Amino acid sequence: MKVEGLNLNGANLLVTGGTGSFGKRFLQAVCRSFKLERLIVYSRDELKQFQLRQAFPVEAHPEVRMTIGDVRDRDRLSRVMDGIDTVVHAAALKQVPTAEYNPLEAIKTNILGAANVIDAAIERKVKQVVALSTDKAANPVNLYGATKLCSDKLFVAANGTGMDKTRFSVVRYGNVVGSRGSVIPYFLAQKPTGRLTITDPRMTRFLMTLDDSVLFVLKSMQRMLGGEIFVPKIPSVKVTDLARVIAPECSQEVIGIRPGEKLLEIVISDEVGLV
């Protein structure tokens, strides 16, 4: 997955939340395209790290290092960022209902965790940090979106002191096709029952593939100067149309919107001036 002008050969990368859907595909892309010095997978789930290691055995990928840690732990972050050139911050609590029912936990990970990433990166003189965001951060109506909006603000503002050389940017996009907890695996699991549950027939969602999300992050790494929120042009789809494509033979049952959900997602609010 080549990006013109981007050369990560010999680089030291760290991916927070590296065992998630994005992190795994990101590892595949950069390990295939570049000869890295180190690629540190930083996450708190030892089982997922064990499973990921099976796909990236030490013998074939000595550059890939698995490190247990939480973005809530600033000291641990600072230690693993020693000598790191680039950080991709993908760690988050991202399930909307989970954040609604566990608000303080979402705040600790998504906001305070973001602050810890920023502080550790500045302390260790990391060259660049790219933070993953979500369309739910635009005019948020749920806690998850609100925490990611706060996180976005923190990363953009981190460029403003002029005292440090670390550059921070944000990448904001919609739902990733097939990621854990997303609607497509949910529909596929329901397909054998002959019935798909639809929250609201008017609901639409932005969709992009995992490969597209990884490519967009790599392009943003190449283009960033610091302080940007990169937003791609991506298609939107009605949930009912998606259900019809996945399982045309199934009936659709409307069950109502879950707590914190929007009918129509946006990636940029109307109030934001565009240049």
Summed up, what is this model?
This protein is of the alpha/beta class and 275 residues long.
Can you put this structure into words, describing what you see?
This protein has 275 residues and is of the alpha/beta class. The chain has a domain at 12-174 and 208-233: NAD(P)-binding Rossmann-like Domain (Rossmann fold, 3-Layer(aba) Sandwich). Helices cover 37% and strands 20% of the residues. The protein contains nine helices and twelve strands. It has helices at residues 21-33, 46-55, 74-80, 96-101, 103-123, 143-157, 183-190, 210-223, 239-246; strands at residues 12-16, 38-43, 64-68, 86-89, 128-134, 167-173, 175-176, 195-198, 204-208, 229-230, 236-238, 251-254. The strands form three sheets. Strands 3-2-1-4-5-6-10 form a seven-stranded parallel sheet, with helices on both faces. A three-stranded mixed sheet has the order 7-9-11. It has a two-stranded parallel sheet with strand order 8-12. Strand 2 (38-43), helix 2 and strand 3 form a beta-alpha-beta unit. Helix 1 (21-33) crosses helix 8 (210-223), helix 3 packs parallel to helix 5 (103-123) and helix 5 runs parallel beside helix 6 (143-157). The longest helix is centred in the middle third of the chain and has 21 residues, at 103-123. It is globular. The two termini are 29 Å apart.
What descriptors fit this protein?
20% strand, alpha/beta, 275 residues, Rossmann fold, 7-stranded parallel beta sheet
> Per DSSP, what share of the residues sits in E-state strands of 2 or more residues?
15-25%
Return the CATH class of the domain at 12-174 and 208-233. Answer: Alpha Beta
Shape: globular
Helix content: 25-40%
Mean pLDDT: 91
The CATH architecture of the domain at 12-174 and 208-233 would be 3-Layer(aba) Sandwich
Q: Pairing-aware structural class of the strands and helices? A: alpha/beta
Distance between the termini: 29 Å
Catalogue the unreliable spans: none
Q: What is the makeup of the main sheet?
A: 7 strands, parallel
CATH topology of the domain at 12-174 and 208-233: Rossmann fold
Lateral strand order in the biggest sheet: 3-2-1-4-5-6-10
- Order of H and E elements: EHEHEHEHHEHEEHEEHEEHE
